[in-house]
From TrEMBL:
Domain of life: Eukaryota
Keyword tags: Membrane, Transmembrane, Transmembrane helix
Residue ranges crossing the lipid bilayer per the database entry: 45-67, 87-112, 242-264, 276-300, 312-331, 358-380
Organism in which the protein naturally occurs: Lactuca virosa
Record lineage: Eukaryota, Viridiplantae, Streptophyta, Embryophyta, Tracheophyta
Keyword Repeat attached: no
Protein name, UniProt field: Vacuole membrane protein KMS1
Length: 407
């Protein structure tokens, strides 16, 4: 078979190698690739890092022994593990947000945003912010915060009140959700490192990443928003030589679809690691997270809504016929808001509450699991295709060598 025909055959095989088109072959190649990677990793560890493995083994054994022995330190160890779990959870969510879980959905929308909103609404209902039992009393894996379902009477009387009702200032709510927001931002910054390192390695080896060609190919297939986004990315690539600490900081400080190229371009143009990472860390963990957090708190504690309401009332007061009806409309809106923000009445034992079989939490968890399933499918497909491509390269090299020997 000529080389051109073999190359076309290989291309067709790669395109067809998916879990949908060829599930058994894809799974087989995926398992072979994983086993091969595990074998290589074990060989490397056994031959190069014996002392490191010994140190890790002794450390783990000592830690397990320390945890298994009862004593006064048990409470402190348990507290330390709670903090570690809390930190790892929010950092992992930040990393998952950067990689998009294979679907482009944002964990800020899935977890951090609702957590901030729930805490703000609860603080408004109870008139106080000391709701958490500890810093780690937040939404976590298979765990809801203890304050979410508690009645406000369990926390005590309101500490914040005014003539207009309960008004909890933003400056009091922000510190209560600031730690998890910063940890999430740290995770998003860490999630931007793989593209940087991959591009940096390609640049050092003399290769160039064909980002422009991929954008051209995708532009011919996509229309509408996707095509416009690709045009924006192409413009960004043409101006990537102006990347510095300030521009990286600005790009990281605002939500934008172009930052996925920033790491690639910084690695390609040799931007120092610490310059890229510090700018990304400050932008994402400090600036961006605080902008998002302050916005959600402002919406949920009615400060922003009150300002918008006052501005709308002022504008509508100049419209003939509407000014006379404004007091009635505003009174009804305030009554609805007070009813919504009022703390729920405690349910007594003789009252039966009808629960839905299909709750919001179950639907939400189903969406998250579908995202994870999609992420897993893409990992399996890409791993199997990468393994097949290596085998094809070996076959192509053997064919070229055979043709050269015949000549």
């Amino acid at each position: 078979m000529p080389i051109s025909g073999l190359r076309e055959k290989h291309k067709q095989e790669l395109e067809n190698l998916t879990l949908i088109a060829q599930p058994f072959k894809t799974l087989k190649l995926f398992i072979v690739a994983v086993l091969q990677y595990i074998r290589r990793s074990l060989v490397y560890l056994l031959t190069h890092v014996v002392w490191l493995m010994l140190f890790v083994t002794l450390t783990v054994a000592g830690g397990l022994l320390f945890l298994s022995v009862d004593g006064p330190h048990g409470k402190h160890v348990e507290e330390l593990l709670e903090y570690a779990r809390f930190g790892l959870w929010w950092v992992a969510l930040g990393v998952a947000s950067s990689i998009g879980l294979g679907s482009g959905l944002h964990t800020f929308v899935l977890y951090l945003g609702p957590h901030i909103a729930f805490f703000t609404i609860k603080a408004m209902q109870c008139g106080r912010v000391d709701l958490k039992s500890a810093v780690y009393d937040t939404i976590q894996l298979n765990r809801s915060p203890s304050w979410l379902k508690k009645d406000c009477s369990e926390f005590g009387p309101p500490l914040f009140s005014s003539s207009q009702g309960v008004q909890v200032p933003l400056s009091s709510i922000l510190p209560q959700v600031q730690v998890e927001a910063i940890l999430w931002g740290l995770g998003t910054a860490l999630g931007e490192l793989p593209p940087y390192f991959i591009s940096r390695a390609a640049s050092i080896s003399g290769d160039k990443m064909d980002v422009t060609e991929e954008l051209d190919a995708s532009s011919s297939e996509n229309n509408g928003v996707a095509s416009n986004l690709n045009h924006m990315k192409r413009w960004f690539l043409s101006h990537a030589q102006y990347l510095n600490f300030f521009t990286i900081l600005v790009l990281a400080s605002v939500p934008n679809p172009l930052f996925d190229l920033a790491g690639i371009m910084c690695g390609q143009f040799g931007i120092p690691f610490w310059k890229f990472f510090l700018a990304t860390l400050i932008g994402k963990a400090i600036v961006k997270t605080h902008i998002q957090t302050v916005f959600i708190i402002s919406v949920c504690n009615n400060q922003l809504l009150d300002w918008i309401e006052n501005e709308l009332i002022w504008m509508l007061s100049f419209i003939p016929g509407v000014a006379s009806a404004l007091p009635t409309i505003v009174a009804k809106l305030h009554a609805m808001k007070e009813k919504y923000m009022a703390a729920p009445l405690p349910v007594t034992s003789n009252i039966k509450v009808k629960s839905w079989d299909l709750s919001f939490a179950s639907v939400w968890n189903s969406i998250v699991w579908l995202m994870l399933l999609n992420f897993f499918v893409k990992i399996v497909n890409s791993t199997a295709q990468r393994y097949l491509k290596k085998q094809q390269e070996i076959e192509m090299a053997a064919l070229k060598k055979l043709e050269q020997s015949e000549d």
